[in-house]
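Dear colleague,

Thank you for sharing your sequence with our group. We've completed the structure prediction you requested, and as agreed, I am returning the results in plain text so they can be pasted directly into your records. Please verify that the sequence below matches your submission; if there's any discrepancy, let me know and we will rerun it promptly.
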Amino acid sequence: MLAKKYNFKEIEEKIYRSWEKKGYFNPDKLTLGKDARPYTTMLPPPNITGSLHIGHALNAIIQDITVRQKRMAGFKTLWLPGIDHAGIATQNVVEKELAKKGKSREELGREKFLEEIWKWKKKYGNQILNQLKRLGASCDWSRTRFTLDQDYQEAVKTAFLKYQKKGLLYQGTRVVNWCPRCETTLSDLELEYQDQKSDLWQIKYPLKKKLKDGLKAIVVATTRPETMLGDTAVAVHPSDKRYQKLIGQKVILPLVEREIPIIADRVVDPKFGTGAVKVTPSSDLTDELIGQRHNLPTVKIIDKKAQMTKEVPEKYQGLSREKARKAVVADLEKQELIVKKEKISNRIATCYRCQTVIEPLPSKQWFVKMAKLKEPAIKAVEKGEIKFYPERYKKIYLDWLREVRDWCIS
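Please find the predicted structure tokens below.
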């Protein structure tokens, strides 16, 4: 007698267990012809940060359709499943769970915290795999991988040594994207940008020597006055007639009383602010490049906790960047060095997982030399070996690769 209501859960699970038991998803257990060609595809490993969402379901279904079609066509078909430890993303969700219990990563220490990570992996890793099975995904579960499996870790180490022997790796100090909350570097692809209204201050930097026409100062524009404590130059565009007579002159850095030069660099936008910008090689990627071109010193004024270092005047040492900004502005106002403050629209970079505002910092890290690696990728597109649809993405890709910097992998 048929049931009044179709129990899809019970019936689908029964059918799926039968598929698994008979080894339909394992290419080594299928009866195939001797000349059967292999077809292998990877399941993009979902992060173990929680349950799967509708996007995962869509991608899995599309892959499953392809895999089943190849299997029916007689290919020796393998759909390899796996899950990803997700690094910072998993660290953050585990920290949030610990916070609910009144605990922190720092209190637990590294080893105990790793134990919590593995507990999370066991819980949500299994949940993710079961969700995929409920979708009917025809993966070979006997080959399930995790990106922290020991042999995977060994493969990463082997690749690292391989690139090092080829001379493609080096350790160097460079301004990187630093998340003060996660305490880690982030690649440009791991940044999220938020549009906001910010204050733009115009600040007078007194000239060391008053000019014959009576000019006593140059006015610079900045949204981050706290970083002026690490300035090592003021930059203007070489074609900007307003400032050509000032190129080569010296100014006295307010609050620090350090002599710094006025330099000319084509990267300066004459239309931004006053057309004169402060150069802080330790707190901005563009400024770092300017500093390298002009052999400027670097003064590291902000540490990995986003607090002011001992390189700044004593009264600002240990302050957070936000408190330091208020203190610096207050002191500049007392000295009547603030010319103007206005609101502007700008974008700030934040950590893609915790939304903390990124702090550009000089840090010693491992980098991959991209000059040699990018050339084959560029040539493959130029020769038509790789095609883009729509065509406009070809230019975007090539522009990005041609300007790519060495890749921070630490």
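Summary note from our side: The chain has ten helices and 15 strands.

Kind regards,
the structure core
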